[in-house]
Amino acid sequence: MSALPTLSSRQMGIGFTTALVVLVVIAALVAAVARLSATQQSTATLDLEMAEAWQAAGAGISYGIGRIVRGDWQACFNSQTSLTLENGFTVTVRCASSLFTEGEITPGTPRQVRLYQLTSTACNQPAAGACPNNDAATGPFYVERVREWSGTLQMN
Question: Among the residues of the chain, which ranges form H helices?
């Protein structure tokens, strides 16, 4: 019968050391996955808010066009109005216009055309009730979108 090999004192602790290294590696992987998950959730939330801000800015353009068509802003000279929407966004709509003579309606009767320029800025953290908020713009949770529109309206 052969004798069992004897372990030297240097070989006896290798199992414990290996188990400890494996546990540390697994813990690091779990921490990395948790961090990645939190980052992904935050990114998805900001993506949703950016889409909402884009839609809110579009609503601001529609609002401005409606005011022009109704006659509220027939000759808007650097006019501005801010709206607070139900989704928590604030939209600031700016209107500027210029009057031009473009051709003639009939000989000797100039055709007057007004060029409108609307700028709609939507944000989730307004400053004094208006967008943009330059102080919050460097923060991680500030969302802002700008949409512009230009159009003409014949005056006569």
Answer: 14-70
